[in-house]
User: What shape does this take?
Amino acid sequence: MNRFSRIGNRLGIDIGSSQVRIYTGEKIILEEASCAAVDNVNGMVLGYGTDALVRSHSYRERCHLEWAVHNGVMSDYNITKGMLRYFINKAVRHAVSRPHVMASVSCELSSVVRHALVDALMHGGAQKVSLISSPAAAAIGGGVVLDLPEAVLSVVIGRDVTDVGIYCCGGKVYEKSVAFGGHNIDEEIYRFLQEDYNILVGMEQAERLKREWISVVHTGENRTFTVRGRRMSDGVEIIIELAEHHLLPLMQRILLPVSRLIKNVLQKATPEIAEDLMKNGMVLSGGTARLPGLSDWISAQIGIPVFVSDKPDCVVAKGCYLALSHIRELPLLVEAGEKYYGGIS
Ligand SMILES: Nc1ncnc2c1ncn2[C@@H]1O[C@H](COP(=O)(O)OP(=O)(O)O)[C@@H](O)[C@H]1O
Ligand SMILES: [Mg+2]
Assistant: This one.
C-alpha cells in the first residue's frame, strides 16, 4: 500500500459491548474485542482487544479483563480512550491525516455519554467525529434507502442492547432501546441448565450452545446435542443429552422483551407508517440476528415480514462508513460531534 494512502481518512466505527468493528473502503478492516487486560497489582493496561484476550489467557493470575462498554454505555472513560486510540492507530497506519470518524450509538444514549464518547474518539486520534444511531446505520449498511417517503423499521440486537428505530424521509420517526441482547440469552441458558438439569457449565459453553445448536422455532430436524458440565450436588463431571424441544419454550420466553419492544414502537406509528411497515417489513441486524429462527419468530409475533441483513454483525460499521460518505444527504440522522466537543486541551 502507498505509504501516504488516503484509505483510513474516513472510518465507520461500531463500538459494541463485545466487539469494535471498523469499516473503510469496502470492508471491515478491524474487528477486535472491546476490552483491555489490566494488571491486578498496579492497574496498568497491558493490552487491548485481541492482545488483551491473549494476555488474560496466558497470565490469568496476573491480570483481568475490563470491558469498555456495558449496555451500550461506555463504562470506563480512560480504558475506552486508550482502546480507541490503539484501534484507530492500527486502522490508519498508512494515512497522512487523522480520520473523520462516524460512530454508531445506542438510541437512548444521554448527551453526557455522547459527549464522553466524542471526547474519547477525538483523544483517540480522530480529526472530526459524527454520530449516528445504530438502527439507522444498520439500515444504511444493509442497503436500505432512508430518505424516501416510505417508512423503514430497523432493529439491532447486539450483546446486551436491542435498539429499534423507525425512519422516513431521511429523518427519525421514533427510536427506543432496551437492555437486552445475546448475553442475556447465554445467562438464561446457564441458569436453566443449573436449575432444571442440575448441571454447571461455563458461560462460554452456554454461548457456544446458543450459537451452534439452539433455534427459536422448530427446525423439524429433531436435533439433539450433548452438554458436558459438573453435577451441582457433588462436582462430578457428567454429560447430558438435550433435544431441541427442551429449549424452545425457554428461548421464546427469553426473547419476549424484544418482541414487546418492537410492538411498543409499532404502537407509536401512525396508520400510514404502519401500512408502509406491513408492506416493506423490518430489517434485523446485530450478532444475535444470526440466531436460527429468530426472524421467523419475531415476524410471527409482530405480524410483519422480517429480513435479516447480510453479515448482520458488520452492517452497523458499514452503515457508519456509508453515512459518512453521504453525510450531506443525511442531515437529520447524523449528529455533529462538534456539538459536544470543545477541543483537545
Ligand atoms: N451465530 C450466532 N448465533 C447466535 N448468536 C450469535 C451468533 N453469532 C454471534 N452471536 C451473538 O451476538 C452477540 C454479539 O453481537 P454484536 O452485534 O457483535 O454485539 P455488540 O455490537 O454489542 O458487540 C453476542 O451475544 C453473540 O453471542
Ligand atoms: Mg454492534
